[in-house]
Amino acid sequence: DHVAGLLDRGRRTLGHLLDRADSELTHTHARVVALSPAATLRRGYAVLQRADGHVVRGPAEVTAGEALRARVADGEFSVKVSE
Q1: 0.70 cut: is pTM over it?
Q2: Where would I find the beta strands (DSSP E) of the chain?
Q3: Listing from the earlier edge strand, what are the strands of the sheet with 47-49?
Q4: Of 79, 52, 54, 82, residue with least CA distance to 68
């Protein structure tokens, strides 16, 4: 009876630890997905890149008439700076 009780207790403890680890993994995965650049693009944002591939971080980095690439969730397209 004592060994059976210890075995049962061990199984419950292991089950609890596995459930907790699964929950933590699920939450970590959700955070990684939410913070990914792809998730940001799916929310409607775009990433602008210059011809050399550098990301545009502010208006002072571009000049009128410059061609840029806009990356969005479903692909990319060309844009031209008008002013």
Answers
A1: no
A2: 47-49, 67-72, 75-80
A3: 47-49, 67-72, 75-80
A4: 79
